[in-house]
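Section 5.1 Outputs to date
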Amino acid sequence: MEIPKNLEECYLILEKSQDIEEWLKESEGMAMAQAHHGIGMWIRNNWGLWKEEGELFNWFKENEINHPDDMSGIILTSFYRYKNNLDIKLDEQINESVEWYLTEQERLLRQRNKPVDMSKFPGCYDFASLYPTVMTDFTKDSKFMAELKRAERKIKLERLNIIYVLERTRRNIRRTRNNT
């Protein structure tokens, strides 16, 4: 089986697919929805994306695309646009994927920091109720707690922003190296 090394080779293989002309007549959104569990799954399973191997997979990883669903989505969106003489907007597709994951990471960080309802874990102890004098004085000061929450959020957002800037900088450096 032929495994492509780049988007151009993906196009050559996809052009040989049956029923491609009908698929290309659909709107982009409908075409992508139809393709995800069909040709998209085939791409993920047969081009080494789930196995995390091959030049194509490595190219996506270098561009901060980490999930095979996103990889196949970018392949298919780019192919659809290429065949319909539309601007592929590859950088925009990559940035959208990276932005989505950064937003998702922030959501997970927020979710992870929610207080735990200890009543859901019988046999475990809620240390705030075991040692109320330690926790009560600390939590009574609502101004202090509000400042603490603001500071925690600021630190989390700054940490995410640093990760985002580093990823974007790495991507720009790689692009600059590839263009020279």
